[in-house]
UniProtKB/TrEMBL annotation:
Binds 1 heme c group covalently per subunit. Residues 1-18 form the signal peptide. It comes from the Bacteria. The keyword Glycoprotein does not apply. Residues 23-52 are annotated as: Disordered. This is Cytochrome c. SUPFAM superfamilies: Cytochrome c. Keywords: Electron transport, Heme, Iron, Metal-binding, Signal, Transport. Heme c binds at C72, H76, M121. It comes from Cyclobacterium lianum.
Amino acid sequence: MKLNFKLNLSLIAGAMLAVSCGGSGGGSSESETTSSTPAATPEPPKEVNLEEKYKDDPVFIRGVELMKQNDCPSCHMIERKIVGPSYADVAAKYESTEENVEMLAGRVIAGNVGEWGEIPMPAHPALSEDDAKDMVRYVLLLKK
Ligand code: HEC
């Protein structure tokens, strides 16, 4: 009987403790948590955001428009290699000269392999040369 009573007491005390810790949170306990753990906003990458840098350039705007109508984004991203090289990598490799634009536009239309690895870029026979060139101009614009 005595033992039982003691046990009950400690159970009640335990329950009360749990309530006062977890459940009684008014405004004060919330502000405590925010001040002790500073908001963990992820640091933006230090390098330049190329999209931000060139977003007002007409070559950029035209390129984005054309890319959206084609399958390019499924294999290419601006700053990250996915299936194909990133546009930034392509831009770093080639000067933006008229010859290079023509040469690369030809490769986009005909397809290419071996320049960046074993994965081929499929041909885009439906593309006009002008559109292909506009897309390549956009790619080569994206220098850091
Ligand atoms: C199925 C995936 C795929 C698609 C779709 C694709 N590419 Fe590619 N692209 C690649 C791969 C892979 C390479 C690397 C080819 C190589 O190593 O020669 C590449 C390379 C390139 C290059 C660099 C060529 C060189 O010789 O250095 C350019 C520019 C390019 N792509 C533009 C485009 C454009 C513009 C489109 C849309 C019309 C497009 N790609 C669609 C996979 C793709």
